[in-house]
Write a structure and sequence with these properties.
With 104 residues, this protein is mainly beta. The chain has a single domain (2-103), classed as Beta Complex (Metal Binding Protein, Guanine Nucleotide Exchange Factor, Chain A). It is built from 1 helix and 9 strands, in the order βββββββαββ. It has one helix at residues 80-86, and strands at residues 2-5, 8-12, 19-21, 24-27, 37-46, 50-61, 64-74, 94-96, 100-103. The strands form 2 sheets. It has a 6-stranded antiparallel β-sheet with strand order 3-4-8-7-6-5, with no helix packed on it. The protein has a 3-stranded antiparallel β-sheet with strand order 2-1-9, with no helix packed on it. 26% of the residues are buried.
């Protein structure tokens, strides 16, 4: 599976390594190119998964900044009950949406 932003692969892993939660694919942290993520200040707490960390997706280069706000998120410390429900520890796994396309 791949996460693609602006025609660049920003995460890639075998489907068996991903976790599928609420119609979103969560990539293991080791499969995500961290240079394309910037922590966002957007607050959110999921009632059953816990405190969420949003990320802007993009990069800065000689032509300036190019960031898509809040296009990725993860749960650094998901609730134990969420881990039991999902049947896998998905701490720091990263999910994408909006400007990021996820495909096989």
């Amino acid at each position: 599976m791949k996460a693609i932003w602006n025609d660049q692969v920003i995460a890639e892993a075998d489907k068996s390594e991903l976790t599928y939660i609420e119609q979103n694919w969560y990539f293991p942290p080791s499969s995500v190119k961290q240079e394309f993520l910037r922590e966002s200040d957007t607050p959110y707490t999921c009632p059953w998964k816990g405190v969420c960390q949003y990320f802007d997706v993009g990069h800065s280069d000689d032509s300036g900044d190019n960031w898509s706000q809040d296009n990725a998120w993860s749960y650094p410390e998901p609730l134990e009950s969420a881990i039991r429900t999902v049947k896998k520890d998905f701490s720091n796994y990263v999910a994408f949406w909006r400007d990021v396309r996820v495909e096989e």
